[in-house]
Design brief:
five-stranded antiparallel beta sheet; elongated; 49% helix; three-stranded antiparallel beta sheet
Amino acid sequence: MAVDRRALVLNAIVQDYVKTGEPVGSRAVVEFHHLGVSPATVRNDMAALEERGLIAQPHTSAGRVPTDAGYRQFVDQISELKPLSRGERAAIEKMLSEAVDLDDVIARSVRLLASITNQVAMVQYPSLRRTALRHVELVPMSDTRALVVIITDAGRVEQRIVTTESELSDEELLTLRATFNEEIADHQLADLPAALDRVDARLPEELRAAALTIGRALEDTLRNEAEERVVFAGTANLTRYDIEFERTIYPVLDAIEEQVVLLRMLANKEDGLHVGIGSENVSDAFSETSVVSTNYVGVGQQTVARLGIIGPTRMDYPSTMSSVYAVAKYLSDILSAN
């Protein structure tokens, strides 16, 4: 019974500290959370929680604040996400559904996530290492030049101009386009060499040189563009929490600017919602922050990338987790429908 009550006391301290930013005393826990016990009993529970490293007393005679371990226990016991309001869901759906292309939907997603969480938001672009090729278009520019347009199943579009040794007729371009699309559709980047071999085997001798040129352009473009990218928004939100950081927030802001740091933050996570708290994060710069992230999917419900937020450890975890999950779901719905 005492163990269950101590969990309630910890939850009360986390909730009140997140709301007020002030250390929480035993009397406040009793008055506002109606645990049915005396302040003296709550003080005993606080002492037990402090001994376990779940709360700390920042000043003599002050109340208690959660530690990283306390936040972790609080987050781990969240069994259901708080649903967004009908208005919030409608606003998310409307904003994302009006996007005109992948760049637009990513930009809208990161701005939206920053706005509804009041944190720094980050969205990883769909990885060409995990998405599949959907279509290759060959657009004639002259008798010996063509624009190669590459479209993935996540809506990503890349292009390259190629020059062939010999002139190509419209009919030959159509043959090349049809053969490429029949062999590469639904294949990932790793499968491309074998697909290009099949293209070569199917084409007549006079088109193989052109196919080789197009194939090299295809490989080079995908290899160059396969580098992961993360976009972020809402860094100004973090400056509102300067009082939350024992050290300056500038190392945090500097780290956010580094693509490799953000990619490491999002990498190697299992699918689903993940919360990294304080020292659990990959960089010392984020030792006073929490990172809430989840995956989003494309066609075939395959994970293509992740998105999330960075904020101080003193955050409204249930609300933030719900917002991250909701934006990921709507982004997934849009990409899956492409």
